[in-house]
Protein backbone atom coordinates (compact mmCIF):
# COMPACT_ATOMS: atom_id res chain seq x y z
CA UNK A 1 0.00 0.00 0.00
CA UNK A 2 1.13 3.49 -0.66
CA UNK A 3 0.90 6.33 1.76
CA UNK A 4 -1.14 8.41 -0.58
CA UNK A 5 -2.39 11.77 0.64
CA UNK A 6 -6.05 12.32 1.30
CA UNK A 7 -8.33 11.23 -1.49
CA UNK A 8 -9.28 14.83 -2.10
CA UNK A 9 -5.81 15.80 -3.17
CA UNK A 10 -5.13 12.57 -4.95
CA UNK A 11 -7.52 13.24 -7.80
CA UNK A 12 -7.09 17.01 -8.03
CA UNK A 13 -5.80 18.47 -11.27
CA UNK A 14 -4.91 22.02 -12.23
CA UNK A 15 -6.07 23.71 -15.41
CA UNK A 16 -4.21 27.00 -15.25
CA UNK A 17 -5.44 28.83 -12.18
CA UNK A 18 -8.43 26.51 -11.90
CA UNK A 19 -8.23 23.48 -9.62
CA UNK A 20 -10.61 20.66 -10.41
CA UNK A 21 -11.60 18.11 -7.75
CA UNK A 22 -10.82 15.38 -10.26
CA UNK A 23 -9.98 15.15 -13.96
CA UNK A 24 -13.42 14.03 -15.17
CA UNK A 25 -15.48 16.73 -16.91
CA UNK A 26 -18.86 16.27 -18.56
CA UNK A 27 -18.44 17.26 -22.22
CA UNK A 28 -20.38 20.11 -23.74
CA UNK A 29 -23.43 19.08 -25.72
CA UNK A 30 -23.64 15.76 -23.91
CA UNK A 31 -24.87 16.83 -20.49
CA UNK A 32 -27.49 19.49 -21.18
CA UNK A 33 -27.06 22.32 -18.70
CA UNK A 34 -26.20 19.80 -15.99
CA UNK A 35 -29.48 20.20 -14.15
CA UNK A 36 -31.07 17.48 -16.30
CA UNK A 37 -28.85 15.02 -14.40
CA UNK A 38 -29.38 16.01 -10.77
CA UNK A 39 -31.42 12.86 -10.10
CA UNK A 40 -28.66 10.53 -11.27
CA UNK A 41 -25.43 12.21 -10.15
CA UNK A 42 -24.29 14.66 -7.49
CA UNK A 43 -23.00 17.44 -9.73
CA UNK A 44 -20.34 18.45 -7.19
CA UNK A 45 -18.66 15.06 -7.63
CA UNK A 46 -17.66 15.87 -11.20
CA UNK A 47 -14.39 17.62 -11.91
CA UNK A 48 -16.41 20.02 -14.02
CA UNK A 49 -19.42 20.41 -16.25
CA UNK A 50 -19.00 21.92 -19.69
CA UNK A 51 -22.54 23.09 -20.35
CA UNK A 52 -24.25 23.01 -23.72
CA UNK A 53 -22.86 25.62 -26.13
CA UNK A 54 -24.39 29.05 -25.75
CA UNK A 55 -24.85 31.91 -28.18
CA UNK A 56 -26.11 35.33 -27.13
CA UNK A 57 -29.59 34.49 -28.41
CA UNK A 58 -31.75 31.40 -28.18
CA UNK A 59 -31.42 28.93 -31.04
CA UNK A 60 -33.81 26.35 -32.46
CA UNK A 61 -31.21 23.93 -33.81
CA UNK A 62 -31.70 21.64 -36.79
CA UNK A 63 -34.87 19.69 -37.57
CA UNK A 64 -34.83 15.96 -36.76
CA UNK A 65 -33.27 13.54 -37.59
CA UNK A 66 -30.49 14.85 -35.43
CA UNK A 67 -28.59 11.70 -34.50
CA UNK A 68 -27.78 8.35 -36.01
CA UNK A 69 -25.77 5.54 -34.52
CA UNK A 70 -22.82 4.26 -36.57
CA UNK A 71 -20.38 1.43 -35.77
CA UNK A 72 -19.03 2.24 -32.27
CA UNK A 73 -20.01 5.82 -32.89
CA UNK A 74 -22.65 8.48 -32.78
CA UNK A 75 -23.18 10.92 -35.62
CA UNK A 76 -24.99 14.09 -34.62
CA UNK A 77 -26.15 17.37 -36.05
CA UNK A 78 -28.12 19.00 -33.27
CA UNK A 79 -27.34 22.50 -34.51
CA UNK A 80 -26.63 24.02 -31.08
CA UNK A 81 -30.22 24.34 -29.91
CA UNK A 82 -29.93 26.45 -26.80
CA UNK A 83 -31.47 28.98 -24.47
CA UNK A 84 -28.91 31.74 -24.96
CA UNK A 85 -26.53 33.20 -22.40
CA UNK A 86 -29.02 35.48 -20.63
CA UNK A 87 -31.54 32.77 -19.85
CA UNK A 88 -28.67 30.49 -18.84
CA UNK A 89 -27.42 33.00 -16.28
CA UNK A 90 -30.93 33.66 -15.01
CA UNK A 91 -32.42 30.16 -15.04
CA UNK A 92 -29.57 27.66 -14.71
CA UNK A 93 -26.52 29.21 -13.12
CA UNK A 94 -28.02 29.87 -9.65
CA UNK A 95 -28.99 26.23 -9.17
CA UNK A 96 -25.69 24.97 -10.59
CA UNK A 97 -23.95 27.21 -8.08
CA UNK A 98 -26.17 25.96 -5.24
CA UNK A 99 -25.26 22.42 -6.17
CA UNK A 100 -21.55 23.32 -6.05
CA UNK A 101 -20.95 22.36 -9.65
CA UNK A 102 -17.74 23.52 -11.33
CA UNK A 103 -19.25 25.21 -14.35
CA UNK A 104 -17.32 25.57 -17.59
CA UNK A 105 -19.42 27.60 -19.99
CA UNK A 106 -19.03 26.66 -23.64
CA UNK A 107 -19.60 29.70 -25.87
CA UNK A 108 -20.24 29.93 -29.60
CA UNK A 109 -20.28 33.00 -31.78
CA UNK A 110 -21.31 33.82 -35.31
CA UNK A 111 -18.82 36.68 -35.22
CA UNK A 112 -15.72 37.57 -33.26
CA UNK A 113 -17.72 40.30 -31.55
CA UNK A 114 -20.27 37.76 -30.31
CA UNK A 115 -17.55 35.68 -28.63
CA UNK A 116 -16.21 38.82 -26.96
CA UNK A 117 -19.64 39.90 -25.78
CA UNK A 118 -20.40 36.43 -24.39
CA UNK A 119 -17.11 36.35 -22.49
CA UNK A 120 -17.74 39.82 -21.11
CA UNK A 121 -21.22 38.86 -19.89
CA UNK A 122 -20.04 35.61 -18.31
CA UNK A 123 -17.12 37.31 -16.57
CA UNK A 124 -19.63 39.36 -14.63
CA UNK A 125 -21.78 36.35 -13.71
CA UNK A 126 -21.31 34.57 -10.41
CA UNK A 127 -20.46 30.88 -10.53
CA UNK A 128 -18.57 30.50 -13.80
CA UNK A 129 -15.31 28.60 -13.32
CA UNK A 130 -13.99 28.80 -16.89
CA UNK A 131 -14.92 29.56 -20.48
CA UNK A 132 -14.60 26.96 -23.20
CA UNK A 133 -14.40 28.63 -26.57
CA UNK A 134 -16.30 26.55 -29.11
CA UNK A 135 -14.49 27.17 -32.38
CA UNK A 136 -15.05 23.66 -33.57
CA UNK A 137 -18.73 22.74 -33.97
CA UNK A 138 -18.97 21.17 -37.42
CA UNK A 139 -22.75 21.50 -37.65
CA UNK A 140 -23.43 25.17 -38.11
CA UNK A 141 -22.61 27.21 -41.16
CA UNK A 142 -21.78 30.58 -39.65
CA UNK A 143 -18.91 31.43 -37.29
CA UNK A 144 -17.54 28.79 -34.98
CA UNK A 145 -15.56 26.41 -37.05
CA UNK A 146 -14.50 29.05 -39.55
CA UNK A 147 -12.39 30.44 -36.70
CA UNK A 148 -11.32 26.98 -35.65
CA UNK A 149 -10.12 25.94 -39.12
CA UNK A 150 -7.88 28.95 -39.64
CA UNK A 151 -4.74 29.59 -37.58
CA UNK A 152 -5.26 33.35 -37.90
CA UNK A 153 -8.94 33.00 -36.98
CA UNK A 154 -8.07 30.96 -33.91
CA UNK A 155 -5.40 33.40 -32.82
CA UNK A 156 -7.66 36.39 -33.37
CA UNK A 157 -10.69 35.08 -31.50
CA UNK A 158 -8.67 33.77 -28.56
CA UNK A 159 -6.75 37.06 -28.30
CA UNK A 160 -9.91 39.12 -28.46
CA UNK A 161 -11.66 37.10 -25.76
CA UNK A 162 -8.48 37.07 -23.64
CA UNK A 163 -8.61 40.85 -23.50
CA UNK A 164 -12.03 40.92 -21.83
CA UNK A 165 -11.88 38.07 -19.31
CA UNK A 166 -9.69 36.83 -16.51
CA UNK A 167 -11.57 33.54 -16.36
CA UNK A 168 -9.57 30.50 -17.46
CA UNK A 169 -9.96 30.36 -21.22
CA UNK A 170 -10.07 27.01 -23.00
CA UNK A 171 -10.42 26.94 -26.80
CA UNK A 172 -12.04 23.67 -27.91
CA UNK A 173 -10.26 22.49 -31.03
CA UNK A 174 -11.56 20.70 -34.07
CA UNK A 175 -9.89 17.57 -35.40
CA UNK A 176 -10.98 18.52 -38.92
CA UNK A 177 -7.64 20.14 -39.74
CA UNK A 178 -4.35 18.76 -41.02
CA UNK A 179 -2.25 19.70 -38.01
CA UNK A 180 -4.22 20.18 -34.80
CA UNK A 181 -1.04 20.87 -32.81
CA UNK A 182 -0.54 24.11 -34.76
CA UNK A 183 -3.96 25.24 -33.53
CA UNK A 184 -3.03 24.40 -29.96
CA UNK A 185 0.11 26.47 -30.43
CA UNK A 186 -1.84 29.41 -31.90
CA UNK A 187 -4.21 29.23 -28.91
CA UNK A 188 -1.32 29.25 -26.46
CA UNK A 189 0.30 32.22 -28.17
CA UNK A 190 -3.01 34.09 -28.03
CA UNK A 191 -3.19 33.65 -24.27
CA UNK A 192 -5.29 30.53 -23.74
CA UNK A 193 -4.98 28.82 -20.36
CA UNK A 194 -5.57 25.36 -21.80
CA UNK A 195 -6.94 23.70 -24.91
CA UNK A 196 -9.59 20.99 -25.12
CA UNK A 197 -9.76 18.46 -27.94
CA UNK A 198 -11.20 16.86 -29.89
CA UNK A 199 -14.59 18.08 -31.00
CA UNK A 200 -16.37 15.71 -33.39
CA UNK A 201 -15.17 14.55 -36.79
CA UNK A 202 -17.17 15.81 -39.75
CA UNK A 203 -18.89 12.73 -41.14
CA UNK A 204 -21.90 11.45 -43.06
CA UNK A 205 -24.21 8.44 -43.25
CA UNK A 206 -26.67 7.55 -46.02
CA UNK A 207 -29.75 5.30 -46.13
CA UNK A 208 -29.08 3.21 -49.23
CA UNK A 209 -32.75 2.33 -49.80
CA UNK A 210 -33.96 5.92 -49.92
CA UNK A 211 -30.54 7.38 -50.89
CA UNK A 212 -31.23 10.08 -48.35
CA UNK A 213 -28.68 11.28 -45.79
CA UNK A 214 -29.57 9.89 -42.39
CA UNK A 215 -29.29 13.37 -40.83
CA UNK A 216 -31.46 16.32 -41.80
CA UNK A 217 -28.31 18.45 -41.90
CA UNK A 218 -26.73 15.98 -44.38
CA UNK A 219 -23.42 15.96 -42.48
CA UNK A 220 -22.75 15.75 -38.79
CA UNK A 221 -20.08 15.22 -36.17
CA UNK A 222 -18.85 11.76 -35.22
CA UNK A 223 -18.14 10.90 -31.59
CA UNK A 224 -17.84 7.74 -29.52
CA UNK A 225 -15.31 4.91 -29.26
CA UNK A 226 -14.85 4.91 -33.05
CA UNK A 227 -12.79 8.12 -32.86
CA UNK A 228 -10.85 7.37 -29.68
CA UNK A 229 -7.47 6.31 -31.12
CA UNK A 230 -7.37 9.35 -33.39
CA UNK A 231 -8.22 11.61 -30.49
CA UNK A 232 -5.51 10.02 -28.32
CA UNK A 233 -2.98 10.67 -31.08
CA UNK A 234 -4.04 14.31 -31.37
CA UNK A 235 -3.80 14.85 -27.62
CA UNK A 236 -0.32 13.34 -27.72
CA UNK A 237 0.71 15.69 -30.53
CA UNK A 238 -0.68 18.76 -28.77
CA UNK A 239 0.98 17.88 -25.49
CA UNK A 240 4.32 18.08 -27.27
CA UNK A 241 3.48 21.33 -29.03
CA UNK A 242 2.37 23.45 -26.06
CA UNK A 243 3.14 23.90 -22.39
CA UNK A 244 -0.43 24.79 -21.34
CA UNK A 245 -2.64 21.92 -20.14
CA UNK A 246 -4.47 19.79 -22.67
CA UNK A 247 -7.98 18.51 -21.90
CA UNK A 248 -8.57 15.32 -23.86
CA UNK A 249 -11.75 13.77 -25.12
CA UNK A 250 -13.07 11.44 -27.79
CA UNK A 251 -14.90 8.18 -27.08
CA UNK A 252 -13.97 7.79 -23.42
CA UNK A 253 -16.16 5.06 -21.95
CA UNK A 254 -14.12 3.54 -19.13
CA UNK A 255 -11.47 4.40 -16.52
CA UNK A 256 -8.91 2.77 -18.78
CA UNK A 257 -9.82 5.24 -21.52
CA UNK A 258 -9.41 8.17 -19.10
CA UNK A 259 -5.96 6.90 -18.15
CA UNK A 260 -4.99 6.40 -21.79
CA UNK A 261 -5.77 10.03 -22.61
CA UNK A 262 -3.91 11.27 -19.53
CA UNK A 263 -0.84 9.16 -20.22
CA UNK A 264 -0.92 10.51 -23.78
CA UNK A 265 -0.74 14.02 -22.36
CA UNK A 266 -4.11 15.14 -21.04
CA UNK A 267 -4.30 16.95 -17.69
CA UNK A 268 -8.04 16.32 -17.56
CA UNK A 269 -10.61 14.66 -19.79
CA UNK A 270 -14.16 15.14 -20.96
CA UNK A 271 -16.75 12.41 -21.29
CA UNK A 272 -19.66 12.83 -23.67
CA UNK A 273 -21.28 10.08 -25.69
CA UNK A 274 -20.71 7.42 -23.01
CA UNK A 275 -22.93 9.41 -20.65
CA UNK A 276 -25.86 8.79 -23.00
CA UNK A 277 -25.48 5.02 -22.73
CA UNK A 278 -24.69 5.10 -19.01
CA UNK A 279 -25.64 8.22 -17.03
CA UNK A 280 -24.22 6.56 -13.92
CA UNK A 281 -20.76 6.31 -15.51
CA UNK A 282 -19.13 9.03 -13.38
CA UNK A 283 -18.72 7.05 -10.19
CA UNK A 284 -17.44 4.06 -12.16
CA UNK A 285 -14.77 6.23 -13.80
CA UNK A 286 -13.65 7.74 -10.50
CA UNK A 287 -13.59 4.36 -8.75
CA UNK A 288 -11.58 2.92 -11.64
CA UNK A 289 -9.02 5.70 -11.44
CA UNK A 290 -8.59 5.27 -7.68
CA UNK A 291 -8.16 1.54 -8.15
CA UNK A 292 -5.46 2.17 -10.78
CA UNK A 293 -3.59 4.60 -8.51
CA UNK A 294 -3.66 2.05 -5.69
CA UNK A 295 -2.59 -0.79 -7.90
CA UNK A 296 0.37 1.14 -9.32
CA UNK A 297 1.28 2.92 -6.11
CA UNK A 298 0.81 6.35 -7.66
CA UNK A 299 0.20 9.24 -5.29
CA UNK A 300 -1.58 11.71 -7.52
CA UNK A 301 -3.44 11.30 -10.77
CA UNK A 302 -1.68 14.37 -12.16
CA UNK A 303 1.59 12.42 -11.98
CA UNK A 304 0.59 10.26 -14.96
CA UNK A 305 -0.06 13.11 -17.41
CA UNK A 306 2.19 12.81 -20.43
CA UNK A 307 4.07 9.78 -19.14
CA UNK A 308 3.69 7.61 -22.21
CA UNK A 309 6.86 5.59 -22.70
CA UNK A 310 7.64 5.57 -26.40
CA UNK A 311 11.13 4.22 -25.83
CA UNK A 312 12.66 7.40 -27.17
CA UNK A 313 15.27 9.18 -25.09
CA UNK B 1 -35.90 9.25 -9.75
CA UNK B 2 -34.71 6.84 -12.44
CA UNK B 3 -33.04 3.56 -11.51
CA UNK B 4 -30.46 1.69 -13.56
CA UNK B 5 -31.16 -2.02 -13.23
CA UNK B 6 -29.22 -4.97 -14.54
CA UNK B 7 -32.46 -6.85 -15.08
CA UNK B 8 -32.63 -10.58 -15.63
CA UNK B 9 -34.98 -11.89 -18.32
CA UNK B 10 -37.82 -13.79 -16.59
CA UNK B 11 -39.55 -14.89 -19.78
CA UNK B 12 -39.62 -14.07 -23.47
CA UNK B 13 -42.83 -14.80 -25.33
CA UNK B 14 -42.82 -14.63 -29.12
CA UNK B 15 -46.25 -13.39 -30.16
CA UNK B 16 -45.56 -13.58 -33.91
CA UNK B 17 -42.52 -13.76 -36.20
CA UNK B 18 -41.86 -10.08 -35.35
CA UNK B 19 -43.46 -9.30 -32.00
CA UNK B 20 -42.41 -10.44 -28.55
CA UNK B 21 -43.13 -9.64 -24.92
CA UNK B 22 -40.08 -9.81 -22.70
CA UNK B 23 -40.40 -9.85 -18.90
CA UNK B 24 -37.61 -8.28 -16.87
CA UNK B 25 -36.88 -8.59 -13.15
CA UNK B 26 -36.68 -4.88 -12.40
CA UNK B 27 -38.87 -4.35 -9.30
CA UNK B 28 -37.35 -0.96 -8.45
CA UNK B 29 -38.37 0.40 -11.83
CA UNK B 30 -41.71 -1.42 -11.96
CA UNK B 31 -42.87 -0.07 -8.60
CA UNK B 32 -42.14 3.53 -9.69
CA UNK B 33 -43.49 3.39 -13.23
CA UNK B 34 -46.57 5.44 -14.08
CA UNK B 35 -48.67 4.75 -17.22
CA UNK B 36 -47.01 6.28 -20.28
CA UNK B 37 -43.48 6.24 -18.87
CA UNK B 38 -40.62 4.45 -20.59
CA UNK B 39 -37.31 2.73 -19.97
CA UNK B 40 -34.01 2.94 -21.87
CA UNK B 41 -32.72 -0.52 -22.72
CA UNK B 42 -29.38 -1.94 -23.79
CA UNK B 43 -28.45 -5.58 -24.22
CA UNK B 44 -24.83 -5.30 -25.21
CA UNK B 45 -21.89 -4.44 -23.03
CA UNK B 46 -19.73 -4.02 -26.10
CA UNK B 47 -19.72 -0.93 -28.27
CA UNK B 48 -22.55 -2.07 -30.50
CA UNK B 49 -25.25 -1.01 -30.15
CA UNK B 50 -23.69 1.96 -28.45
CA UNK B 51 -26.85 3.68 -27.25
CA UNK B 52 -29.88 2.49 -25.36
CA UNK B 53 -33.28 2.39 -27.02
CA UNK B 54 -36.57 3.57 -25.50
CA UNK B 55 -39.48 1.23 -24.75
CA UNK B 56 -42.78 1.92 -23.05
CA UNK B 57 -43.38 -0.07 -19.91
CA UNK B 58 -45.97 -2.58 -21.18
CA UNK B 59 -47.10 -4.46 -18.05
CA UNK B 60 -46.14 -4.19 -14.40
CA UNK B 61 -45.87 -7.72 -13.00
CA UNK B 62 -47.10 -8.11 -9.44
CA UNK B 63 -47.05 -10.91 -6.90
CA UNK B 64 -48.99 -10.48 -3.66
CA UNK B 65 -49.53 -6.85 -4.56
CA UNK B 66 -45.81 -6.11 -4.89
CA UNK B 67 -44.23 -5.06 -8.18
CA UNK B 68 -41.76 -7.73 -9.20
CA UNK B 69 -40.96 -6.88 -12.77
CA UNK B 70 -42.09 -5.29 -15.97
CA UNK B 71 -42.61 -6.35 -19.54
CA UNK B 72 -41.80 -4.69 -22.84
CA UNK B 73 -43.76 -5.14 -26.05
CA UNK B 74 -41.28 -5.12 -28.91
CA UNK B 75 -41.39 -5.39 -32.67
CA UNK B 76 -38.27 -6.46 -34.53
CA UNK B 77 -36.94 -3.52 -36.51
CA UNK B 78 -33.32 -2.82 -35.61
CA UNK B 79 -30.43 -4.32 -33.69
CA UNK B 80 -31.77 -3.86 -30.18
CA UNK B 81 -35.26 -5.16 -30.99
CA UNK B 82 -33.68 -8.21 -32.65
CA UNK B 83 -31.55 -8.82 -29.56
CA UNK B 84 -34.71 -8.46 -27.45
CA UNK B 85 -36.51 -10.96 -29.67
CA UNK B 86 -33.70 -13.50 -29.32
CA UNK B 87 -32.96 -12.94 -25.60
CA UNK B 88 -33.13 -16.01 -23.38
CA UNK B 89 -34.32 -16.48 -19.81
CA UNK B 90 -31.56 -15.40 -17.44
CA UNK B 91 -29.94 -12.98 -19.89
CA UNK B 92 -29.21 -9.56 -18.43
CA UNK B 93 -30.70 -6.39 -19.88
CA UNK B 94 -29.54 -2.93 -18.78
CA UNK B 95 -32.76 -1.07 -18.05
CA UNK B 96 -32.93 2.60 -17.01
CA UNK B 97 -36.16 4.16 -15.83
CA UNK B 98 -38.89 5.02 -15.32
CA UNK B 99 -38.50 8.09 -17.50
CA UNK B 100 -40.67 10.75 -19.06
CA UNK B 101 -43.96 12.47 -18.42
CA UNK B 102 -46.82 9.99 -17.89
CA UNK B 103 -50.42 10.10 -19.07
CA UNK B 104 -52.90 12.17 -17.13
CA UNK B 105 -55.30 9.45 -15.92
CA UNK B 106 -58.95 10.56 -16.04
CA UNK B 107 -61.70 9.78 -13.56
CA UNK B 108 -65.41 9.08 -14.13
CA UNK B 109 -67.66 10.40 -15.48
CA UNK B 110 -65.07 11.00 -18.22
CA UNK B 111 -64.63 7.91 -20.42
CA UNK B 112 -61.19 6.88 -21.66
CA UNK B 113 -60.59 5.74 -25.23
CA UNK B 114 -57.17 4.33 -25.99
CA UNK B 115 -56.29 4.37 -29.68
CA UNK B 116 -53.39 2.03 -30.54
CA UNK B 117 -51.62 1.39 -33.83
CA UNK B 118 -49.39 -1.70 -34.04
CA UNK B 119 -46.67 -1.72 -31.40
CA UNK B 120 -48.30 1.49 -30.14
CA UNK B 121 -50.35 -0.82 -27.90
CA UNK B 122 -47.38 -0.76 -25.51
CA UNK B 123 -48.35 2.02 -23.05
CA UNK B 124 -51.99 1.00 -22.80
CA UNK B 125 -51.88 -2.05 -20.54
CA UNK B 126 -50.67 -0.06 -17.53
CA UNK B 127 -52.95 2.83 -18.48
CA UNK B 128 -55.98 0.50 -18.67
CA UNK B 129 -55.21 -0.86 -15.20
CA UNK B 130 -54.87 2.63 -13.73
CA UNK B 131 -58.13 3.74 -15.38
CA UNK B 132 -60.06 0.66 -14.29
CA UNK B 133 -58.76 1.09 -10.73
CA UNK B 134 -60.60 4.42 -10.78
CA UNK B 135 -63.68 2.77 -12.29
CA UNK B 136 -63.31 4.79 -15.48
CA UNK B 137 -64.97 3.24 -18.54
CA UNK B 138 -62.24 2.18 -20.96
CA UNK B 139 -62.40 1.45 -24.68
CA UNK B 140 -59.43 0.20 -26.71
CA UNK B 141 -59.54 1.07 -30.40
CA UNK B 142 -56.76 -1.03 -31.82
CA UNK B 143 -55.48 -1.21 -35.38
CA UNK B 144 -52.88 -3.39 -37.10
CA UNK B 145 -52.03 -4.62 -40.58
CA UNK B 146 -53.76 -7.98 -39.99
CA UNK B 147 -55.48 -9.93 -37.23
CA UNK B 148 -52.24 -11.90 -36.76
CA UNK B 149 -50.73 -8.71 -35.35
CA UNK B 150 -53.46 -7.99 -32.80
CA UNK B 151 -52.34 -9.09 -29.35
CA UNK B 152 -53.55 -9.24 -25.74
CA UNK B 153 -57.21 -8.83 -26.69
CA UNK B 154 -58.32 -11.23 -23.94
CA UNK B 155 -56.05 -9.47 -21.45
CA UNK B 156 -57.87 -6.19 -22.05
CA UNK B 157 -61.34 -7.77 -22.22
CA UNK B 158 -60.80 -9.57 -18.92
CA UNK B 159 -60.23 -6.16 -17.35
CA UNK B 160 -63.56 -4.87 -18.64
CA UNK B 161 -62.02 -2.92 -21.47
CA UNK B 162 -64.30 -2.67 -24.50
CA UNK B 163 -62.24 -3.61 -27.58
CA UNK B 164 -62.86 -2.18 -31.07
CA UNK B 165 -60.64 -3.40 -33.90
CA UNK B 166 -59.46 -2.29 -37.33
CA UNK B 167 -57.11 -4.07 -39.72
CA UNK B 168 -55.70 -2.90 -43.03
CA UNK B 169 -56.61 -6.23 -44.67
CA UNK B 170 -60.03 -6.47 -43.04
CA UNK B 171 -59.21 -9.73 -41.25
CA UNK B 172 -60.62 -8.31 -38.01
CA UNK B 173 -62.90 -5.36 -37.32
CA UNK B 174 -63.09 -2.49 -39.76
CA UNK B 175 -61.05 -2.72 -42.93
CA UNK B 176 -58.76 0.31 -42.81
CA UNK B 177 -57.17 2.59 -40.28
CA UNK B 178 -58.13 3.11 -36.63
CA UNK B 179 -59.55 6.51 -37.45
CA UNK B 180 -62.48 4.72 -39.15
CA UNK B 181 -63.93 3.20 -35.95
CA UNK B 182 -62.78 6.25 -33.98
CA UNK B 183 -64.86 8.56 -36.17
CA UNK B 184 -67.90 6.28 -35.85
CA UNK B 185 -67.55 5.96 -32.08
CA UNK B 186 -67.27 9.74 -31.75
CA UNK B 187 -70.46 10.25 -33.73
CA UNK B 188 -72.25 7.94 -31.29
CA UNK B 189 -70.81 9.52 -28.17
CA UNK B 190 -72.32 12.97 -28.20
CA UNK B 191 -73.05 14.18 -24.70
CA UNK B 192 -70.38 12.01 -23.07
CA UNK B 193 -67.09 13.43 -21.87
CA UNK B 194 -64.24 11.48 -23.46
CA UNK B 195 -60.46 11.66 -23.12
CA UNK B 196 -58.66 10.12 -26.09
CA UNK B 197 -55.24 8.56 -25.62
CA UNK B 198 -53.22 7.58 -28.69
CA UNK B 199 -49.96 5.80 -29.44
CA UNK B 200 -48.67 4.62 -32.79
CA UNK B 201 -46.98 5.98 -35.91
CA UNK B 202 -46.94 9.78 -36.07
CA UNK B 203 -49.25 10.03 -39.11
CA UNK B 204 -51.79 8.06 -37.07
CA UNK B 205 -51.34 10.38 -34.08
CA UNK B 206 -51.88 13.37 -36.32
CA UNK B 207 -55.01 11.81 -37.82
CA UNK B 208 -56.40 10.86 -34.41
CA UNK B 209 -55.77 14.37 -33.09
CA UNK B 210 -57.48 15.84 -36.15
CA UNK B 211 -60.55 13.58 -35.91
CA UNK B 212 -60.84 14.08 -32.16
CA UNK B 213 -60.54 17.85 -32.26
CA UNK B 214 -63.14 17.87 -35.06
CA UNK B 215 -65.50 16.51 -32.39
CA UNK B 216 -64.18 18.86 -29.72
CA UNK B 217 -62.36 16.09 -27.89
CA UNK B 218 -59.03 16.30 -26.10
CA UNK B 219 -56.18 13.93 -26.90
CA UNK B 220 -53.06 12.78 -25.12
CA UNK B 221 -50.58 11.29 -27.59
CA UNK B 222 -47.43 9.32 -26.83
CA UNK B 223 -44.77 10.04 -29.45
CA UNK B 224 -41.65 8.11 -30.36
CA UNK B 225 -38.68 10.02 -31.72
CA UNK B 226 -35.08 8.92 -32.21
CA UNK B 227 -33.80 9.14 -28.67
CA UNK B 228 -30.16 9.16 -27.58
CA UNK B 229 -30.23 9.27 -23.80
CA UNK B 230 -33.77 9.57 -22.38
CA UNK B 231 -32.72 12.17 -19.81
CA UNK B 232 -32.62 15.43 -21.76
CA UNK B 233 -28.88 15.47 -22.34
CA UNK B 234 -28.53 14.96 -26.07
CA UNK B 235 -31.31 17.05 -27.68
CA UNK B 236 -31.94 14.49 -30.42
CA UNK B 237 -35.57 13.54 -29.70
CA UNK B 238 -37.04 17.00 -30.17
CA UNK B 239 -40.56 17.59 -31.48
CA UNK B 240 -42.04 20.93 -32.55
CA UNK B 241 -44.80 22.27 -30.32
CA UNK B 242 -46.95 25.37 -30.72
CA UNK B 243 -45.65 28.58 -29.22
CA UNK B 244 -48.24 31.35 -29.30
CA UNK B 245 -50.65 31.77 -32.20
CA UNK B 246 -48.10 31.35 -35.01
CA UNK B 247 -44.81 30.22 -33.52
CA UNK B 248 -43.33 26.86 -32.70
CA UNK B 249 -40.30 25.58 -30.86
CA UNK B 250 -38.56 22.27 -30.27
CA UNK B 251 -38.94 20.47 -26.98
CA UNK B 252 -37.23 17.25 -25.92
CA UNK B 253 -39.77 14.45 -26.10
CA UNK B 254 -37.90 12.46 -23.43
CA UNK B 255 -38.49 14.99 -20.65
CA UNK B 256 -41.30 17.23 -21.96
CA UNK B 257 -43.02 14.05 -23.19
CA UNK B 258 -43.33 11.39 -24.45
CA UNK B 259 -46.96 12.25 -23.68
CA UNK B 260 -48.20 15.50 -25.22
CA UNK B 261 -51.55 17.09 -25.77
CA UNK B 262 -52.21 16.27 -29.44
CA UNK B 263 -53.28 19.87 -30.08
CA UNK B 264 -49.93 21.20 -28.87
CA UNK B 265 -47.84 19.25 -31.39
CA UNK B 266 -47.01 20.77 -34.78
CA UNK B 267 -47.59 17.75 -37.00
CA UNK B 268 -46.05 16.94 -40.36
Task: Looking at this protein, list some descriptive labels.
heterodimer; A: 313 residues; TIM Barrel; eight-stranded parallel β-sheet; four-stranded antiparallel β-sheet; 10 helices; 34% helix; globular; disordered N terminus; B: 268 residues; alpha/beta; Elongation Factor Tu (Ef-tu), domain 3; 2 domains; 18% helix; 37% strand
Number of strands of chain B: 16
| Domain module count of chain A | 1
- Indicate the mean pLDDT of chain A: 94
Describe the main β-sheet of chain B briefly: 7 strands, antiparallel
CATH superfamily of the largest domain in chain B: Nucleotide-binding domain of ferredoxin-NADP reductase (FNR) module
Task: Using the coordinates shown, work out and report the CATH topology of the largest domain in chain B.
Answer: Rossmann fold
Q: Describe it for me?
A:
- The complex is a heterodimer of chains A (313) and B (268).
- Chain A is α/β, with parallel strands linked by helices and 313 residues long.
- Chain A has one domain (7-61, 80-198, 226-304): Aldolase class I (TIM Barrel, Alpha-Beta Barrel).
- Chain A has helices at residues 7-11, 84-98, 112-123, 145-148, 151-164, 180-189, 228-241, 255-264, 273-277, 281-296, and strands at 13-15, 18-20, 24-26, 48-54, 67-70, 73-76, 103-107, 130-134, 169-172, 195-197, 201-204, 206-207, 212-213, 219-223, 246-249, 268-271.
- The longest helix of chain A is centred in the C-terminal third of the chain and has 16 residues, at 281-296.
- Mean pLDDT of chain A is 94; it is low at 1-5.
- In chain B, 18% of the residues lie in helices and 37% in strands.
- The longest helix of chain B has 13 residues, at 202-214.
- The A-B interface holds A 29-32, 36-37, 39-40, 52, 60-61, 64-69, 71-74, 76, 78, 81, 224-226, 253, 273, 275-280 and B 1-2, 4, 42, 47-52, 94, 96, 225-226, 228-229, 231-239, 249-250, 255.
Amino acid sequence: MTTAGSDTHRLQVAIGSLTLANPIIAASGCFGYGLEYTEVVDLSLLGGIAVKGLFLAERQGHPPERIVETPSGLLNAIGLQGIGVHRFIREKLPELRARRATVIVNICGSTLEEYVELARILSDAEGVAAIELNISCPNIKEGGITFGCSLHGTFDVVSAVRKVTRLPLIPKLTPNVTDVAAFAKASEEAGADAVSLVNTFLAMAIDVDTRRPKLSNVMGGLSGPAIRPIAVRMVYECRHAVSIPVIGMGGIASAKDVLEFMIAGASAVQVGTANFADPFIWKKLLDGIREYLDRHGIQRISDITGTVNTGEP
Amino acid sequence: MPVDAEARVISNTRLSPDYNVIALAAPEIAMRAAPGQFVMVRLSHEASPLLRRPFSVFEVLRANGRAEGLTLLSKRIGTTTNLLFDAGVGDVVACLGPLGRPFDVVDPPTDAWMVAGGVGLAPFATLAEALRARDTNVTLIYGARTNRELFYLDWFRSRDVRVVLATEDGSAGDRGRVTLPLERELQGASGRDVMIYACGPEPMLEAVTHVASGHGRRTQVSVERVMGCGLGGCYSCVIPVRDGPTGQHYVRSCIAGPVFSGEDVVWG
